[in-house]
Specification:
By secondary structure, the protein is of the alpha/beta class. The protein has one domain: Vaccinia Virus protein VP39 (Rossmann fold, 3-Layer(aba) Sandwich), CATH 3.40.50.150. 58% of the residues lie in helices and 14% in strands. It has a 3-stranded parallel β-sheet with strand order 1-2-3, covered by helices on one side. Strand 1, helix 3 and strand 2 form a beta-alpha-beta unit. Helix 1 runs parallel beside helix 4. The radius of gyration is 14 Å and the shape is globular. The relative contact order is 0.15. The model has no long low-confidence stretch (mean pLDDT 92). The structure holds S-adenosylmethionine (SAM). The site of S-adenosylmethionine has 15 residues, from helix 1 and helix 3.
């Protein structure tokens, strides 16, 4: 039997997979203006290593990299990861789940 959280997870994943190509035109104008404040609040600077969980097309990673930081983007949508890699071939992007158990496995893999 599939649990309610799993049904929700599959619903979310299907949605992000299908919207990925349109995310840039629909959302980038809303998201990008906040990125400098986000990076400043997180004190991201040259040499900072950061894991961007639910990175989408990788805007935050791109901006962090411009500051000289070393980001890794993580997203459960293979489409988002494909687009992020295409936009930023020099940045590392991983397909992975942010839910606690799965994220712990990814963090152990990275350490
Ligand atoms: C609103 S978008 C934000 C993307 C990016 N952080 C930005 O600011 O442009 C939400 C992202 O979260 C991802 N996401 C949602 N649930 C996730 C999960 N359980 N694990 C990993 N990524 C997830 C989606 O695939 C989508 O790319």
């Amino acid at each position: 039997m599939i649990s309610t959280p799993d049904i929700f997870h599959q619903f979310e994943l299907k949605g992000w997979q299908s919207i990925a190509e349109r995310y840039d035109s629909a959302w980038s104008g809303l998201v990008r203006p906040f990125i400098p404040s986000l990076l400043s609040a997180a004190r991201v600077a040259s040499g900072t290593r950061l894991l961007d969980v639910a990175c989408g097309p990788g805007y935050v990673d791109e901006a962090a990299s411009t500051l000289g930081a070393i980001p890794i983007g993580l997203d459960f949508s293979s489409e988002m990861i494909r687009i992020a890699k295409k936009r930023n071939p020099l940045i590392e992007f991983l397909e992975g789940d942010a839910r606690p158990c799965a994220l712990m496995k990814t963090l152990l893999m990275l350490s």
